Protein: Cysteine synthase
Amino acid sequence: MSHRILDLIGNTPLVKATSLIDNPNITLYLKLEGHNPGGSVKDRAAYNMIKSAIDRGDINQNTKLIEATSGNTGIALAMIAGIFKLDIELVMPENSTKERVQTMRAFGAKVTLTSSDIGIEGSRDYAEDKVNKEGYVMLNQFANDDNWRAHYKTTGPEIWKDTQGKITHFVSSMGTTGTIMGTSTYLKEQSKDIQIVGVQPTDESRIPGIRKWPKEYLPKIFNPDKVDQVIEVSQEEATDMAKRLAKEEGVFSGMSSGGAVTAAVKLAKTLKSGVLVAIICDRGDRYLSSDLFK
Structure:
């Protein structure tokens, strides 16, 4: 059967962790979002944001798109914008991994690097300035309802179906918060008893893809009422778990995935039984030039 590349977004594998949980009454499943064609969970949101904007007539091939990104969303937007023949400029901190920058450029995007001293917040300010002064259009993943709706339409239903409705806890790192917002909304409609667990870094920890946002930068799509519990993980814990996932589970992923699984394992230790699902949001090859696997 032949597919367009966009038809391969979603329906990612759900695999059982075999070595991380000691309690036989608890099952931990890992949802492998690196199997999306752009290599991360962000393919879902990027496709829904671009396709919905085109369908509404908000953007067309004359539109100059711009977006601030820490990496995975940018790669997804670059891939999908290229397919729709849209021009896009992606703005990210200069300390982003080379793999990310080169992949975005390979897909045809213009990449602008801002000072690492001001992080992704500085990239967001740069993009906002171009929108206000130069007529650019921002999809704005942080405030765009099409971000979380992608997960309401796809991620949530897939998890519910693949666990035969037995899921008790959903664990997701929180960056733009689109994944956790959309998946939470869907799963809570199926059963209010399902617990939604968000993952944040401890103070002073820097974990790509997971943020504890300053109040003025908190994503507008975030609704704290849709998260039952927040578990904090350290940079060291997230790094160690990413290495364990590769060595023990054969799951090659990044640090934010390590953070999510760390939180899931911590959570499991407090439970007598349950079916947990953690998001593995991307692939480890995106981090080979970083210190993650050294």
User: Anything to note?
Assistant: The two ends are 41 Å apart (CA to CA).
